[in-house]
Structure to design on (263 residues):
């Protein structure tokens, strides 16, 4: 193996990114059939009852880390740690704990084709906001993020999912037989930005067909042609990221979803 330290850094970055994408595509996310299908909704996180009714959190418990579960025991809904996601001062706070191998996520049902997701977010220095929009990914034949964003104070990244092997290949058939994902997660596009830490910022994510457009504080910061962004949307997910050393909090507020058809 190449001992170049920069290769090690790159491997670690890719691994963390892949784990975040896995989390936002967790099977613990709210299923589309579980909640009423509405094309538009808003949530200002002023009511804990609404949070409990419409949102579902999920993550990995540090107490469950073993050879079979290297990230920890996967849990969701009522088995999630309440400290992961809470309403604090009228906003949604997600916390990343250093003893846990991966940050938690939270999701809510959506329905639509072309959509606009808007919210406010706040991240600390060294933290990350993770945004996922899920749907039936036709490339992977599974429901994964068809739009995936990682936002830090100095950059924004669009991630995507492709196959490791052609779906009709012997290699793909063997992975399916083993119950393993025929999946390649990768950072598709990265743009440099500059965000003040511990300050609220406005985010708008627009998906028209396969075209993704992202604005922060009303300024376009990223455009990307996704592989499967034109799939029907089933849920959105928010995630947190940390430095593995301290408890870091990522905040979300004033979330809204609206269809873009006809606009």
């Amino acid at each position: 193996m190449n001992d170049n330290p920069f290769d090690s850094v790159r491997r670690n970055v890719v691994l963390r990114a892949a784990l975040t994408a896995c989390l936002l595509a967790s099977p613990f996310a709210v299923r589309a059939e579980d909640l009423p299908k509405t094309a538009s909704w808003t949530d200002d996180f002023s009511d804990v009852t609404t949070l409990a009714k419409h949102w579902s959190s999920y993550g990995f418990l540090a107490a469950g880390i073993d050879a079979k579960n290297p990230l920890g025991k996967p849990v969701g809904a009522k088995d999630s740690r309440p400290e992961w996601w809470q309403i604090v001062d009228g906003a949604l706070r997600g916390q990343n704990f250093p003893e846990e191998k991966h940050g938690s996520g939270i999701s809510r049902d959506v329905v639509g084709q072309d959509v606009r997701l808007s919210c406010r977010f706040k991240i600390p220095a060294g933290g990350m906001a993770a945004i996922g929009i899920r749907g039936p990914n036709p490339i992977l034949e599974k429901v994964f993020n068809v739009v995936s964003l990682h936002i830090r104070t100095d950059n924004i990244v669009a991630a995507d999912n492709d196959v490791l092997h052609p779906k009709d290949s012997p290699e793909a058939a063997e992975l399916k037989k083993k119950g393993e994902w025929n999946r390649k997660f990768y950072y598709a596009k990265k743009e440099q930005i500059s965000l003040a830490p511990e300050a609220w910022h406005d985010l708008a994510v627009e998906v028209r067909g396969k075209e993704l457009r992202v604005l922060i504080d009303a300024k376009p910061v990223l455009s990307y042609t996704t592989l499967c962004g034109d799939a029907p949307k089933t849920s959105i997910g928010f995630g947190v990221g940390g430095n593995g050393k301290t408890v870091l909090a990522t905040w979300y507020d004033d979330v809204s979803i609206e269809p873009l058809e006809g606009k």
Q: What stands out?
A: The longest helix spans residues 5-24.
